[in-house]
Every structure is written in C-alpha cells, then in structure tokens.
Amino acid sequence: MTRLKGESNNRSFLILGTLVAVLLIGLTVWAVQRGQTTSSTGDVQTFDLTNQPMLGQADAPVTLVAFEDFKCPNCKNFEENIFPTIQQKYLDTGKAKMYKINFPFLADQLPTNDSVLAAQAAECAYDQTGSQGYEGMSTILFRAQGDESQVWATKDKLVELSGSVDGLDPAKMRECLDSDATKTRVEADKQQAIKAGVNGTPSVFVNGKLVQNFSADEIGKAIDAANTN
C-alpha cells in the first residue's frame, strides 16, 4: 500500500503518541469490561456513491468501494494483477459490485498536481460514457503510469491517452480538463477518503469495512463472509 507521508523522528510526536497509546489502552479495557470494542479497523463506513463509477450488477448483495490514486504503483499492481480475479469471481457472477473513488494525494507536493489531473480525466471520461468510460480511462492511465515522484499526467498526455479509449472524444476531454469541470467532484472524493480514515492506496472496503490486506484472497474472504450474513 502506498501511504501518506509524515514525520517519524519528532520527539514531541513520539511523546504524544505514547500518551495517546496509553489512553487507547485504557479505553479498550473499559470497553471490554462493558462488552464493547473500540477498534477503528472494525468501524463500518458509509459512502456517498451517487454518480460514482460502478462495475458489476447494480443489485449485487455486496458492495465494494476502492480508493485509488492513478500515480500509485501499488494501485497499478492491484488493477493489473488482483482486480481481474475479483472481477471474474465476484463482479461478473453477481455476488458483488465495486465502486471506485479517487484519492489523489501522491502529487500534493509536486509543482503540478497530476494526481488530481488524472482523477479529473477519469471523471471526464465518466461524463462522456459512464462507468465504461471511467474504467477504460483508468486502465489506460495505469498502463501509462510514470514515476510517482515526477509529473507525467499532464493535460496534453491525458488528452492523448483518452484517444485510445473506445467511445471517448479527445476534444471533449480537452474541454473538460481546461474548464476543471470535474475538479469539485475529485475533491469531494478525496474528502470521503479522509473522512473514512483512509491513509493509503489502494484501500478496499467490503460493505463498509476496510480489508486489511488487499490481496485477492483476503478480499474474496470478506465478500464470502458478507454474502453469508
């Protein structure tokens, strides 16, 4: 998983972390005594999935939500080597559906935030041809992925890539990017990730619960468990 960066050698932070840990231990003991749990990893999150790209059948009983950054190498690995198994076993069979939400953070410190630009392009593709367009643009973006520390998803490159996706009009992509037509939606996606406590990509939720290991086996187990509940 590609994680958010932070300081690790600040003494004040360590002291504060120790105090917080002690407090959490105390809260956990209190909760156990009351027959409750305080584990944040067990929290069930709710997401606004309105107009989010979706794969699978709308009436599937289990809902997956995946947060990704198009500059994230781990997301590229997930999409190319893990997601196909999930799609074949669960999405195509009607056992689950998956929504994809942008969490563009890797380029926050770069001269041009091409994490945001790439996410905007995917949303522009969604506006043209729906979930099919989003998925097609997503596939091309990960295939063309450059170094995460370098700006590569420029507007010109994104317009060029859109020409390789069936049904997309590069001229409309250019207009959409130049007008920032989807920037507000991308920012709303990012805020959903922050609200849910997402600290890295890819992050996959099954019926609102975060899967700690994004391997095909672990996600599959979570889907199977949700289908039996």
From TrEMBL:
Pfam families in the record: Thioredoxin_4
InterPro entries: Thioredoxin-like_fold (IPR012336), Thioredoxin-like_sf (IPR036249), Thioredoxin_domain (IPR013766)
Chain ranges of the Thioredoxin domain: 23-228
Molecular function terms from GO: oxidoreductase activity
Keyword Lyase: no
UniProt KW Oxidoreductase keyword: yes
Transmembrane segments: 12-32
UniProt-recorded name of the protein: Disulfide bond formation protein DsbA
Protein source organism: Deinococcus irradiatisoli
